[in-house]
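TA notes, week 10

Several of you asked for a full example with nothing omitted. So below is the full record: structure tokens for the whole chain, then the designed sequence directly under it. When grading your own attempts, check the secondary structure regions first.
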């Protein structure tokens, strides 16, 4: 992660899946409260997900992002190794993707889990992560905490994602770390901080929070759900393939919404002046 090696069984552990309790909403809630995440294998139909992947990779092929002479479905990274976090207007051109992440299936899961009508933020995060890149450790509350705090991320593998393709990684137990919640967890990356990353160093996170990382390989259609306070990031993509994934947010429609992530330009949130660096903030917070 960020160039540092994590070792399974020592500094990083395997995520456990919750397929065995999938039909039991109370058990899902208990597991979420305890573990901070729910990993559901094969949640989406694999074929539907692979068709969605094809829609996205087709766009990337037109943008000359894929390696010449390789099959589009494989998502082999082209010679300039360009990454993309798809802008909102491009995401709107992907009907298969939108119907997947706004599907009845995911809405019904949340209706059952949260007990009411559900809305999904308009801002959809769709990523094709190139070689050598990862996402540093952060909690989503700093990016989208202006509405309800009872907002959930669904990270979806849009293709098989092996560990060396840069799987999602979470910090076990970080959702219960009170000092983190009361300091970093009440700040806003658009208003207060120059960057939302808590740290770029996976080992420094472990030492500071006293907790370990966890990850797993994902199959196309597997999802992991977690809340606003779970520290997470991703492993480095050390492969020749794009890691195609998306992360989207769901909440009760009756609760306050972070309107910055709604509407026709949800990815163009103005930033306040005089924001401070994470280093300055962490000195202030003493964490
Ligand atoms: O996919 C990634 O690299 C990071 C995902 C993420 O930060 C999120 O789901 O909030």
């Amino acid at each position: 992660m960020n160039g540092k090696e994590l070792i399974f069984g020592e500094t990083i552990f395997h995520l456990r899946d919750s397929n065995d309790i999938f039909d039991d909403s109370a058990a899902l809630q208990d597991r979420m409260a305890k573990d901070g995440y729910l990993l559901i294998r094969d949640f989406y139909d694999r074929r539907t997900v692979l068709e969605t992947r094809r829609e996205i990779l087709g766009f990337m092929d037109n943008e000359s992002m894929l390696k010449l002479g390789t099959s589009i479905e494989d998502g082999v990274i082209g010679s300039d190794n360009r990454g993309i976090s798809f802008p909102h207007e491009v995401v709107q051109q992907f009907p298969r993707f939108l119907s997947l992440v706004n599907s009845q299936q995911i809405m019904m899961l949340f209706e059952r889990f949260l007990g009411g009508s559900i809305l999904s933020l308009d801002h959809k995060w769709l990523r094709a992560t190139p070689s050598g890149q990862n996402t540093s450790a952060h909690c989503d509350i700093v990016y989208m905490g202006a509405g309800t705090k009872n907002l959930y991320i669904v990270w979806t593998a849009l293709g098989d994602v092996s560990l060396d393709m840069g799987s999602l990684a979470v910090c076990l137990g970080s959702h219960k770390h009170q000092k983190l919640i009361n300091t970093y967890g009440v700040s806003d990356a658009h208003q207060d901080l120059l960057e939302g990353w808590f740290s770029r160093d996976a080992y420094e996170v472990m030492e500071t929070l006293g907790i370990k990382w966890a990850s797993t390989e994902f199959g196309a259609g597997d999802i992991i759900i977690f809340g606003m306070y779970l520290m997470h990031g991703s492993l480095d993509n050390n492969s020749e393939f794009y890691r195609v994934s998306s992360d989207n947010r769901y909440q009760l429609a009756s609760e306050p919404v972070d309107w910055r992530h709604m509407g026709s330009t949800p990815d163009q949130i103005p930033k306040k002046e005089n924001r401070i660096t994470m280093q300055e903030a962490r000195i202030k917070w003493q964490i």
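The domain at 14-254+277-285 is CATH 2.60.120.620 (Jelly Rolls). Use that as a sanity check on your answer.
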